[in-house]
C-alpha cells in the first residue's frame, strides 16, 4: 500500500518529466483539504521548493467559512514557494501556477470554469487551422505519401486515423497548423495525388 510520501514522490517524478518535455502541463485534482490531497506537495517537490501558505487565500477561506474554518480548510491556501495565485470574477477561487504548470481542481464543473478563464491568459493571438481528408486507402497504402507531405510542409502536423467500421472511408488524414495556406496546400497535395476512386471527401 502506498504511503503519503510515496504518492508525493510519484507526483514529483512524473511532473518533472512532463514539465521539462511539454510547454504547458495541467494537473487535475488533489488540491482539497483532506489528507490524501497531496498534489501541491508533489508539485513543490518537483520544483525543489517548500510549501508556503498564501495569506490572501487564507483570508478568503476565513471570510468564507467564518468560525467553521479549520486547519484542513486552510490547507487549500498552500502553494509551492514562488508560485502564483491567479483569479478572476468568473473563478474567484485562485488557481496555482508555477512556471509552466497549472494546478487545477478535480471537480469537472470547476475544472472547466477555471480552464475557460485560463484560456484568456494563455491566448497569445495564434490562430489554429485544421483540415481533414477522408480516403478509402489503407494507412499502409498512403504512408510514404504522408511522410513526404510531412517533410514538404514541416509547419503542418499530419496525422492519420483508421476507421474500421466507417461506411464510406477507411482512413482520415488530418492537417493542423497555424498557417492556413500551408495547411491547405498540404491537404491539396494529398487530394491531388490520391487515385480519384480513393478520395471520399474533404472537410
Can you walk through the features of this model?
There is one protein chain. The chain has a four-stranded mixed sheet, sandwiched between helices. The protein contains seven helices and ten strands. 41% of the residues lie in helices and 22% in strands. The mean pLDDT is 88. The protein is an alpha+beta fold and 203 residues long. Strand 4 and strand 5 form a beta hairpin.
Low-confidence stretches: none
Overall pLDDT score: 88
Biggest sheet record: 4 strands, mixed
Shape: elongated
What is the rounded distance between the termini? Answer: 50 Å
Output the helix-strand order. Answer: HEHEHHEEEEHEHEEHE
Output the radius of gyration.
Answer: 23 Å
Strand order of the largest sheet: 1-6-5-4
List the total number of helices.
7
The helix fraction, in percent, is 40-55%
The number of E-state strands comes to 10
Proportion of residues in extended strands: 15-25%
Structural class: alpha+beta
How are the secondary structure elements laid out?
Elements: H1 4-19, E1 25-28, H2 39-47, E2 51-53, H3 55-65, H4 71-74, E3 78-80, E4 84-86, E5 95-98, E6 101-104, H5 108-122, E7 129-135, H6 139-152, E8 157-162, E9 171-177, H7 180-193, E10 199-202
Helix pairs in contact: 1-2, 6-7
Short description:
This protein has 203 residues and is of the alpha+beta class.
List keywords for this structure.
203 residues, alpha+beta, 7 helices
Amino acid at each position: 500500500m502506498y504511503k503519503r510520501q510515496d504518492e508525493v514522490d510519484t507526483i514529483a517524478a512524473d511532473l518533472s518529466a512532463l514539465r521539462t518535455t511539454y510547454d504547458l502541463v495541467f494537473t487535475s485534482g488533489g488540491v482539497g483539504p483532506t489528507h490524501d490531497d497531496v498534489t501541491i506537495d508533489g508539485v513543490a517537490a518537483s520544483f525543489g521548493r517548500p510549501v508556503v501558505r498564501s495569506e490572501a487565500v487564507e483570508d478568503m477561506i476565513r471570510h468564507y467559512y467564518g468560525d467553521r474554518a479549520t486547519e484542513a480548510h486552510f490547507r487549500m491556501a498552500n502553494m509551492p514557494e514562488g508560485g502564483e495565485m491567479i483569479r478572476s470574477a468568473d473563478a474567484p477561487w485562485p488557481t496555482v501556477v508555477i512556471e509552466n504548470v497549472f494546478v487545477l481542481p478535480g471537480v469537472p464543473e470547476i475544472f472547466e470554469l477555471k480552464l475557460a478563464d485560463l484560456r484568456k491568459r494563455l491566448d497569445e493571438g495564434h490562430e489554429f487551422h485544421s483540415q481533414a481528408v477522408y480516403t478509402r486507402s489503407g494507412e499502409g497504402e498512403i504512408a510514404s505519401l504522408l511522410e513526404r507531405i510531412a517533410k514538404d510542409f514541416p509547419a503542418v502536423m499530419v496525422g492519420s486515423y483508421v476507421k474500421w467500421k466507417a461506411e464510406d472511408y477507411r482512413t482520415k488524414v488530418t492537417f493542423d497548423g497555424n498557417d492556413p495556406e500551408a495547411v491547405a496546400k498540404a491537404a491539396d497535395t494529398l487530394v491531388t495525388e490520391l487515385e480519384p476512386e480513393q478520395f471520399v471527401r474533404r472537410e
